[in-house]
Amino acid sequence: MKKKFAMFLCLLCLITTLFLTLTGCKAKEAKTTNGSSSSELSAPGVFPLVKNKVTLKFFAPQNVNIKDMNTNAFTTFYENKTNVHIQWELVPSDALTDKRSLALASNDLPDVFFGAGVTKEEEMLYGTQGIFLPLNKYIDKQGVEIKKMFAAVPVVKPGITTPNGSIYSLPQENQCYHCWFSQKLWINSSWLKKLNLEMPKTTDDILKVYRAFRDNDPNGNGKKDEYALSGANIKTSWHSNPVDYFMCAFIYDDGGDRLSLENGKVDVNFNKPEFKEGLKFMNTMWKEKLIDPAAFTQDEATLKQVGENPAAEILGSVTVGFFGSFTSLTGTRMKNYDAVPPLKGPNGVQTTGWYPYDYAAGQYVITKACTNPELAYKWADWLYSDEATFLYVECGREGKEWKKASATDKDLNGNPAKWMRTDTYAYGEIQNVHYYQMGPSFRSREYRESWGSPQDPYAEKGYELRLQLETKPYEAFKPATVFPPVYMDASAVKEIAQIKTPINDYVNESIAAFVTGNMDIEKEWDNYTKSLESLNLKRYIELQQKAFDSSSFAKK
User: Fold this and answer.
1) Fewest Cβ atoms nearer than 10 Å: which of 164, 437, 444, 504?
2) Distances, alpha carbon 43 to alpha carbons 38, 62, 82, 241, in Å
């Protein structure tokens, strides 16, 4: 009996050893296939990044200007270069925030949030919970190109470092002059000329122009089908809400959280008497049918269909950062629009949105679901290189979409150019070559302004020169200071998250209601401001003040 029992124990040990060996092999195989151990990674800056092909899952917005992220030329190029395959989970841009929040709440996480607009509050909230991984050690160990960018633009690294010293996301750094003043109004200059009107300078002027656009048939088709002013949903287009541009003739408005900073004191603008006057002005335009009814709700694709309406030209003006958002750069209508410099309001206010902090955090976030975060970091690091800037961000392939400039080519400043777009390149059109400015990258001002351009700003390829020239009148009206991008302390993140969204939602809903007349601004303004108080606006401002006071911006 004892002998049989001993044999049984030996057999059990043998089975156990075999099981552990097999499962260990499978675990090792799974690690190699799905995660790839750190020992298999290449040295910093060396390609391919890993010996055996690895798949990473990316959550990203569905860019309307990219045909297919899976077959995109850069996707194919970079997979071959890195030995990393990307499995894309793409969501519509107007649903990006909701889908991202749902993924975080349900713990259904990708390996990476790519170009997904992760907020600073989310970085602190989910970073301190371990859902977003700190990237400091990967930057230290594997960082090559990002370190060059940090050296070139010293403000970036402290700007993306949270109060606890962690870096939870990689940024997009874009030293774009026209982006710094991108809150623009584009007006149909051909209509101004036809109706013998001058470029408007004040809010009174713009009303007269818009009434003429409405009543005097500037497109000449005998119909009242013109829209004096249009725009688009801000979730799908760039500075496209008409309120933001016009409000700057009454009080400074950045079109975002609407925070202001003066002499180190943080405040909001949306409960001030000047903001009320701006809304009354917008309501006047709405009541007089000077605003396209879809100006606040349509997406950019629909706006462009309106701008390129085949039956007749019907757009008098559009608030948006880039005229390519509502016209085709390969067409002729885009030549008809010029930027209106900031308007002077009835009380002499004349300012413009200013966005000097040109790095955008939250562009590349690695989550706890990623089995090899070091590899995920390595994949992103090269995107900050000069070569990647051409291939990946907005250009394409040398010899196809761009080429080296000749001795006679001139750049945006009239100096000898370094690079030239080819005839096949059409920015703003649907393409499948590059990532259309999505995700982490670095574009210096020198790089941006060294591109060759036709010296005619209205030429098909002259749009960058045109943006450069159209922006210069705006620079003189920038505010003295603007509220910088700051991180909340971890202890305040949950509190601010509970306060901020209800306040912003209520403000935006009320703005739309006041403009369209669904709320009577004279009768409802006091209730509106009291409701803001009940939403804990005072505490919201206190938390923002505390975040600013503890930031590197306040210490300068």
Assistant:
1) 164
2) 10, 33, 12, 47
